C-alpha cells in the first residue's frame, strides 16, 4: 500500500509538519530497499526516499503490496512524512555520502529526532557525527547491521549505538525486524556514540578470522588426505552437526560440493585464489594496534588475504623458494580429520577470545560499558558469524561479566584443553610438510604465550634498557631501574 506524503512541507524548512510514517529509510540500494521492505512487512508505515527517485519508484512498483510505504521525492517531503520523534535510517554508501545526507536532513529535523546511520561507517566517523548532531539536540545512532542483503530483508543482527534515550523509541522497532533466536531478538543497545559501529567492525574482523581458519582446515584436509573438494565438503557437512555448527561451516560444505557448470570441475578449483576485502578487517587490525590488544587471529587472516593478492611476490616465489618438505601422507584418515576439527575449534575460540578482548579494551577506553555476553547473544542469528557456540560465550560472560580472558572460562578451558594435543600435531605437521596455516599457528602461539608463566619479554626489556635506557622493573622488588651498561654496570633506581 502506498500513502502520499502526509503534511505538506512546502516552504517548511523548519520541518514542523507531522506525518504518519513510524520510520523512514533514505538510500534504497540493495540494503536500504530490503530494510525498508522488512519494516513494512512487520507492520510499520515506512517513509522511503532515495537521492534519485527511480529507486524509490521501483521499490513501490515491485513491493508496494508488502506493507505501507510513503514515498517522497524530496528530503523535505520525506522528513515531513514521519511521525515524531522522527526516526530516519540512512542506508547510503559509507563515507562522504553519509555526511552529505546528514547535512541535507538536519535543516528539516527537530530536537529529539533520531538519525540512524545503518551503513558500514568507521567508528571514529560515528563519534564525530554523534558529537555534531548532539549539539543540535538530535540523536545520532551509528548502527551495525550484519547479514547482507538477505539479512536486511529477513532479519539482520543489529548493533545500535547512540544514546540510551534514543533506544527507548527506536529499539522496539529495530528488535521487531531483527533476526530472533529462541524468541530473543538479535538486536540490543550496544553503548554510546561509536559503540555500535565498533562492535560491527570487530564482528567483521572475527568473520575474517573464522573464514581464514575454515580455509586453512580445507587446505589441511586437501593436502593431508589428498581429498577432493566434494569429499571435504562432506566432512564440513558432518562438522556442522556438532560444536562447529555455524552459517560459515554450512556454506563451506555447500560451496565445496558445488560443481562448475561450464567445466564440470569442483567450483572452488576454478576460482582464482586471490581474496579481496572491503576494509573492515584492516580497520579492526589497525584498532587492535592502537589499543595494544593482540588480535593475532584477525591480523593473520587479514594479512593472509593480502598475501594471496601479492601477485608479483607470489610469481617470484613459486618454483623458486625451496620447500625441503615431503608431501603429507596421512595414514589414519579418521584420526587426522578429528585432529583438524579440534584444531579448528581451538583456533576459533582464540580468535573470538581476542575479539572480545578488543571490545573490552575499547569499552574501557571510550567509556562504553559494553556487555560482551549480550554481543555474543545478538550475533547468534542474522549475521555471517552466527553459530551455535556463541551461546557458550554468552554463558561465560553471564558467569562472570568481567571475565578477563574468554579462553580462561571454565567451559572453554575444557573444550580447548581437550584438543590441545591435536592442535599441536596439526600445526607441527603443517610446518613439517610446508602447508601454510598462519591463523592455526598464530592462535596456538597465542595460546602458549598467554598461558606461559614466564615470557622472553624479560630479555626484550633488558635489551631496551641496554640501547635506549628505557628502564625495567624487577621480579623481586618494586620500582623502576636502569643499569649503567656502558659504565660500571651498576644498577640505578630510575
Ligand atoms: P551502496 O552501493 O553502498 O550505496 C548506494 C546508495 O547510496 C544509493 O542509494 C545511492 O543513491 C546512495 N548514495 C551514494 N552517494 C550518495 C550521495 N552523495 N548522496 C545521497 N545518496 C548517495 O548501497 P548498499 O550496498 O545497499 O549498502 C548501503 C550501506 O550498507 C553501505 O554503507 C554498506 O557498506 C552497508 N552494508 C552493506 C552490506 C551489503 O551486503 N551490501 C552489508 C552490510 C552493510 P543513488 O541511487 O541516487 O545513486
Q: Can you put this structure into words, describing what you see?
A:
There is one protein chain. This protein is α/β, with parallel strands linked by helices and 494 residues long. The strands form three sheets. The protein has a seven-stranded mixed β-sheet, sandwiched between helices. The longest helix has 34 residues. The chain is globular. Bound molecules: NADP nicotinamide-adenine-dinucleotide phosphate.
Layout of strands and helices, then pairs:
Layout: E1 23-26, H1 30-41, E2 45-49, H2 53-63, E3 68-71, H3 75-80, E4 87-90, H4 96-105, E5 114-117, H5 123-135, E6 139-146, H6 148-154, E7 157-160, H7 164-177, E8 180-181, E9 184-185, H8 195-225, H9 229-239, H10 247-257, H11 267-270, H12 280-291, H13 296-308, H14 311-317, H15 333-366, H16 372-378, H17 390-399, H18 410-417, H19 420-433, H20 438-451, H21 457-468, E10 472-473, E11 480-483, E12 491-493
Parallel strand pairs: 1-2, 1-4, 2-3, 4-5, 5-6
Antiparallel strand pairs: 6-7, 8-9, 10-11, 11-12
Bound molecules: NADP nicotinamide-adenine-dinucleotide phosphate.
NADP nicotinamide-adenine-dinucleotide phosphate binds at residues 27-32, 50-52, 55, 91-94, 97, 100-101, 119-120, 145, 148-149.
Pathway: Carbohydrate degradation; pentose phosphate pathway; D-ribulose 5-phosphate from D-glucose 6-phosphate (oxidative stage): step 3/3
Pfam family, one: NAD_binding_2
GO molecular function, one term: phosphogluconate dehydrogenase (decarboxylating) activity
User: What is the general shape?
Assistant: globular
Total strands: the figure is 12
Q: Helical content, roughly?
A: 40-55%
Mean pLDDT: 96
Number of helices: 21
Ligand catalogue: NADP nicotinamide-adenine-dinucleotide phosphate
**Low-pLDDT stretches:** 6-16
Task: Name the beta content range.
Answer: 5-15%
- Structural class label: alpha/beta
Gyration radius over CA: 26 Å
| Strand adjacency order, main sheet | 3-2-1-4-5-6-7
What about the largest sheet?
7 strands, mixed
Question: Separation of termini?
Answer: 75 Å
Amino acid at each position: 500500500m502506498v500513502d502520499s506524503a502526509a503534511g505538506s512541507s512546502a516552504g517548511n524548512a523548519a520541518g514542523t509538519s507531522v506525518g504518519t510514517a513510524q520510520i523512514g529509510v533514505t538510500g534504497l540500494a540493495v540494503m536500504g530497499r530490503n530494510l525498508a521492505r522488512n519494516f513494512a512487512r512487520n507492520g510499520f508505515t515506512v517513509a522511503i526516499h532515495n537521492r534519485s527517485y527511480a529507486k524509490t519508484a521501483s521499490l513501490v512498483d515491485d513491493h508496494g503490496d508488502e506493507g505501507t510505504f510513503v514515498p517522497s521525492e524530496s528530503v523535505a517531503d520525506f522528513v515531513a512524512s514521519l511521525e515524531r520523534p522522527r526516526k530516519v535510517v540512512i542506508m547510503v554508501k559509507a563515507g562522504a555520502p553519509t555526511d552529505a545526507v546528514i547535512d541535507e536532513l538536519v535543516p528539516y529535523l527537530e530536537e529529539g529526532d533520531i538519525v540512524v546511520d545503518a551503513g558500514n561507517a568507521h567508528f571514529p566517523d560515528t563519534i564525530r557525527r554523534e558529537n555534531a548532531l548532539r549539539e543540535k539536540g538530535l540523536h545520532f545512532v551509528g548502527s551495525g547491521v550484519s547479514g547482507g542483503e538477505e539479512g536486511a530483508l529477513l532479519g539482520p543482527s543489529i548493533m545500535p549505538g547512540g544514546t540510551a534515550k534514543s533506544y527507548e523509541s527506536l529499539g522496539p522497532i529495530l528488535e521487531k525486524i531483527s533476526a530472533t533466536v529462541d524468541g530473543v531478538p538479535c538486536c540490543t543497545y550496544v553503548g554510546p556514540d561509536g559503540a555500535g559501529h565498533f562492535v560491527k567492525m570487530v564482528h567483521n574482523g572475527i568473520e575474517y578470522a573464522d573464514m581464514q581458519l575454515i580455509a586453512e582446515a580445507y587446505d589441511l584436509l586437501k593436502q593431508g588426505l589428498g581429498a577432493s573438494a566434494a569429499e571435504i565438503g562432506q566432512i564440513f557437512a558432518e562438522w556442522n552437526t556438532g560444536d562447529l555448527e555455524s552459517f560459515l561451516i554450512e556454506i563451506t560444505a555447500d560451496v565445496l560440493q558445488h560443481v562448475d557448470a561450464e567445466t564440470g570441475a569442483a567450483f572452488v578449483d576454478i576460482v582464482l585464489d586471490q581474496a579481496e576485502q572491503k576494509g573492515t578487517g584492516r580497520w579492526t587490525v589497525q584498532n587492535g594496534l592502537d589499543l595494544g590488544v593482540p588480535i593475532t587471529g584477525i591480523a593473520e587472516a587479514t594479512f593472509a588475504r593480502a598475501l594471496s593478492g601479492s601477485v608479483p611476490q607470489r610469481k617470484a616465489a613459486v618454483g623458486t623458494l625451496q620447500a625441503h618438505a615431503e608431501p603429507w601422507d596421512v595414514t589414519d584418515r579418521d584420526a587426522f580429520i578429528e585432529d583438524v576439527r579440534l584444531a579448528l575449534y581451538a583456533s576459533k575460540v582464540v580468535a573470538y577470545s581476542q575479539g572480545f578482548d578488543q571490545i573490552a579494551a575499547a569499552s574501557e577506553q571510550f567509556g562504553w560499558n559494553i556487555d560482551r555476553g549480550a554481543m555474543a547473544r545478538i550475533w547468534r542469528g542474522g549475521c555471517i558469524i552466527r553459530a551455535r557456540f556463541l551461546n557458550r560465550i554468552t554463558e561465560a560472560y553471564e558467569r562472570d561479566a568481567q571475565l578477563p580472558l574468554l579462553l580462561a572460562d571454565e567451559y572453554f578451558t575444557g573444550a580447548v584443553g581437550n584438543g590441545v594435543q591435536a592442535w599441536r600435531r596439526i600445526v607441527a605437521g603443517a610446518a613439517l610438510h610446508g602447508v601454510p596455516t598462519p591463523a592455526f599457528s598464530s592462535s596456538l602461539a597465542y595460546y602458549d604465550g598467554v598461558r606461559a608463566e614466564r615470557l622472553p619479554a624479560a630479555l626484550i626489556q633488558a635489551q631496551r634498557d641496554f640501547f635506549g635506557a628505557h628502564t625495567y622493573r624487577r621480579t623481586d622488588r618494586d620500582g623502576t631501574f636502569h643499569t649503567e651498561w656502558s659504565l660500571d654496570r651498576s644498577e640505578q633506581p630510575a
